[in-house]
Give the backbone structure.
Amino acid sequence: MKISIGQKLSGQLTLTPQLQQAIRLLQMSAAEIEQELSQAVLDNPFLELESSFDEASFEPIPEYSHHSSSSQQQRLDGGDYENYSSLSKQTSLFEHLTEQIRTLRIDAADTNILIYLAGCLDEKGYLRDDFEEIKESFIRICEAKEEEAQVLFEKYLGQLQELDPPGIGARDLGECLTLQLKRSPLQQSNPKIWAVAYSVCEKHIHDLAAHNWQKLRKAAGCSEEQLDKAAREIKKLDPNPGNQFLATEQEYVTPEVFVLKKGGRWEVNVNPQNQFKLSIRKEYVDLFKQVKKAEQNEEFIQKFADAKSLVRTVQQREETILLVSKAIVDRQQGFFEHGAIAMRPLLLREIADEVGMHESTISRVTNQKYLTCTKGTFSLKYFFGSQITRDTGSTVSSKAIQTLIGQIVKNESPNNPLSDNEISELLNNEGYQIARRTIAKYRDILNIAPMHSRKRMANEMQGS
């Protein structure tokens, strides 16, 4: 072995405390930033905080939230702002998973990949996006070659699926239940019943939902009694493992911006309640001019520097949110005019390119940020989505397709509901090339029951 001494030039990106603070504040919701600034004022005597809310300057607009089951239209005025404070601080599924990931004995790169995948899960704990939909971002985060991306994806998803609660990270109901069965004590206490239950969940979940008992017994190679016991064990499993992390009380949000129509276009207006006048006390500014740079004054000087940095960071945060919100609203004019049916396909990268920021910055800006318009109150992330290509070559947002599916199901005959294949054929006839499995995925997102369940519910309603 040869030992040698040499020099090597390398670069390393280091986040300064100021940049770390800017990133942290950018991800906060309106309620969280208010708490953060209030605490900062208590900790730093240089700072003063004044709300700029002016009730007289606010123009009321009609509002009814898509989060609410109420269809009655309301009017917003200044007093209604009190209804938009965030109430719930329950740990989210993402936070719960992140805490577990950070305790794993893996390197920083693997940690970041797992956290990314955890962020792709929906509120029920499912990974709804196809691999192709997140492939580009996954390859960039992994710094992997395209030909090995699928293998790496399955590897990291498998690691995520090992976390609690059992069943998270599944791509469909069958996978969710089999993940839970793999960790069930039934495998040791009653292997035969466990094997029947696993087979049913893995390959015949739709037959179970349709109560096709004879077909299930034949497929699983079991007796009626064994199938009955297996079905009872399956019923004990949780089809939505992420639901336990949902707030038990109704959650209220404070919208960062309001969207109003002016001169034929929809424009962004900042919510005046979220404009906090954070500034440095004038008397301390005058005093600071008289302070000499001496060792005994270092703490005083540092407090002043921290105050200036926070004031500047808060201003940049407000400017960034407004800039990104305007870009989103400009792209989604059709949505504000006609609803989700007119939603355009939109990626984080498109907004990032338009405003001259990194894609990760756009992700942080849209996290826990909301806008209110005549259609309701929506998360900024709601306006992003993949695209479907039509026969004509034009593209349409996946959310628009979901809206079409909802309308088709709403107008179907209750006694003769449409199957996923039939819905797929209807849309294909209109020029939308959408596979049956995609219909099933979107139907699940919309909380629309399968055809046989819709038919059964219609029969039960007619019989009652």
Remarks:
- The beta strands are 47-51, 62-63, 74-75, 257-262, 265-270, 276-280, 370-373, 376-379, 387-389, 395-397.
- The two ends are 86 Å apart (CA to CA).
- The first strand starts at residue 47 and ends at 51.
